[in-house]
Amino acid sequence: MENRLFGTDGVRGLINRDLTPDVALRLGLAIGTFFGEGSRILVGRDVRRGGKMIVNALISGLLSTGIEVYNCGLLPTPTLQYNVMKGRFDGGVIVTASHNPPQYNGIKVVGSKGIEITREDEREIEKYYFAGKFDRVDWRRIPDRDYMYEKAAEIYVNDVLKQVDVELIKSKKFKVIIDCANSVGALTTPIIAKKLGCRVLTINGNLDPDFSWREPEPTVNSLKDTALIVRQLNADLGVGHDGDADRSIFIDDRGRVMWGDRSAAIIAKYLARKLSGRKVFTAVSSSLLVEEVLNPLGIEVVWLKVGSVGISYEMLKHDDTLCGFEENGGFIYPRHQYVRDGGMTFALMLQLLAEENRKLSELYDELPKYYSEKIKIPMERSKALEAVERIKEHFINERIITIDGAKVIFSDGWVLVRPSGTEPVLRIMAEAKTKEKLNWILKEVKQVIGGEAN
Ligand code: MG
Q: Boundaries of CATH 3.40.120.10 in the chain?
C-alpha cells in the first residue's frame, strides 16, 4: 500500500500485514475527518478473520473525530447499505473482502444513499490518511455511548419481502438450496426463503472465516457440489452467494450453474413485462445475448465500464431504469436500492418462478446459445492499451463499444479486449453462435494483438 489505499472496490489487503489495526485506526480517523463531527455512521462486517480487530480500530478512529458510530456487527454488505439509506445515516463502513481468498480483508465506505463513495471522495480520504491531517475533536466532545444497531437484518428482510408477492410465492412451496459461502449471507437469505414459505436446505451456512468448504467466490467450479445437491434432491432452485452476499449465482432445477448475465437476462425480461423502466445497465463484460433478449421488448441496454459502483451512479442519473447487473452475479433492483443485492435478487427470482409458473431450466433453455471463451494474457498496461487501439483500428467497420477496452460486435458473436484494472494482464472474452466463429474471432484477435498473444 504505497500512496493509494482504495482499489477498484474499496480497500483490500492481507489481514494483519497490509490491513493492520494501525492502518484501520488511521483510516477511521481519515473517514471520520471526511464525514465530519456529528455524522452518524453505520459500521458492520462480514465473517472474515480479523474483522473484529479491524472494526474496533476503525471505530476508535471514527470516535476520535466525533463521529456517532452505530455498530451492526455481522451482516451482508447490501443489508448495511440498505440500512444506511433507510435509517438516514450519513454513511457506512463495512469490513469485508467480498469474494477474495480467506487471507484477505477489506474496507468499503458508503455514502448516505448506501452506494459506495465516488473515486473523488476516496481520494479525499486518502489525502487525509497520508497527510495525517485529522480533525480530532476536543475531549469533551468525544462520543462515548455505544450504539448497537441490532435491527439491521430484520429491517432489511422485511423490506425485501415488501418487493414481492409473499402469498403467491408461499403457495408454490419451492424447494430451495442456499449456499451461503460460510459467511453473512446465512444471516438473511435463509430467513427470506423461510418467510416465503420455501422448504430450505442451507449449505455452507455455518460462519467460518477459514472458508473451509469452498472459496468465497461463487463460480461454476466452487458451486459444483451445491449444483449436484440441487439436482439430486430435485430442488426448484439453488443460489450461491459470495463472501458478503451482494452477489447471487443461480443454479437451475437441472443442476446447471448459470452465469450472472444469463440469470439477469431472465429477470430483466420478466421485469420488462411488469414495470415501465426501459433501460437496463450492465458492464461491457456481459454477454451480447442481453441485447438479443431485451431489445425486441423495447429495452435499451446501456453498456458501461466494468465495476458495480459506476453502474449504480449511472442508474441514478436516469428515471426510466429497469435494473442493472454484472455478469458475476451482482444484480441491482432499483425499486429496493441502487446497489447489488444478493438477498433481493434471490427473492425476485422466486417471484418470477411463481408468476411465470415455469421451471428455471425452461427459461434458461430459451436464452440464445453461445460458445464462450475467456483468456488472460500477461501484459504491461501500456502494451495492453496499445493492443486495444490496434483492435479498434482493425475492426473499424464493425460495431465497437469503446467505453472500457474494445468490445467488437459481429453478426453472430462478439469479443471484448480489455486491460485488467487490477493486474498487468490483457483480458479477452469472446462468444459466438458457432464453434467455428468463436475460433475465427480468437484467431483474428490474437493476430492483431500479436507478440505475447501467440
Ligand atoms: Mg461481494
A: 11-150, 156-365
Amino acid at site 428:
I
pLDDT tens digits along 216-244 = 999 999 999 999 999 999 999 999 999 99
pLDDT over 90, % of the chain: 94
Note the pLDDT of residue 1: 43
Q: Edge-to-edge strands of the sheet including 147-148?
A: 6-7, 10-14, 104-110, 91-95, 40-45, 68-74, 147-148
CA of 49 to the centre of ligand 1 (A): 16
Q: Please list the residue range(s) of the chain that carry CATH number 3.30.310.50.
A: 371-449
Are residues 209 and 47 in contact, defined by beta-carbon separation less than 8 angstroms? yes
Question: Which are the contacts of 344, defined by CB distance < 8 A and separation ≥ 6?
Answer: 78, 160, 163, 331, 333, 336, 337
CATH class of the domain whose range is 371-449: alpha beta
Please give the positions annotated as active site: 98
What are the Cα distances from residue 237, in Å, to 86, 227, 301, 392, 407?
30, 10, 27, 41, 33
CATH 3.40.120.10 fits 11-150, yes or no: yes
Whether 202 has a pLDDT exceeding 80, the answer reads yes
CATH topology of domain 156-365: Alpha-D-Glucose-1,6-Bisphosphate; Chain A, domain 3 (3.40.120)
Residue-wise pLDDT tens digits, 400-453: 999 999 999 999 999 999 998 778 999 999 999 999 999 999 999 999 998 555
Q: Give the DSSP H/E element, type plus range, for residue 269.
A: helix 260-274
DSSP character string of 271-299: HHHHS---EEEEETTS-THHHHHHGGGTP
Give first-to-last CA distance, the chain, whole Å.
34
pLDDT at 451: 58
Instruction: Please check whether residue 96 is in contact with residue 46, taking contact to mean a CB–CB distance below 8 angstroms.
Output: yes
**Cβ atoms of residues 31 and 109 within 8 Å:** yes
Predicted structure pTM score: 0.96
Measured distance CA(178)–CA(125) in Å, rounded: 37
- Give distance in angstroms: CA of 452 to centre of ligand 1: 32
How many Å lie between the centroid of ligand 1 and the Cα of residue 34? 24
What is the distance in A from the centroid of ligand 1 to the CA of 242? 6
Q: What secondary structure letter does DSSP report for 140?
A: G
CA of 24 to the centre of ligand 1 (A): 20
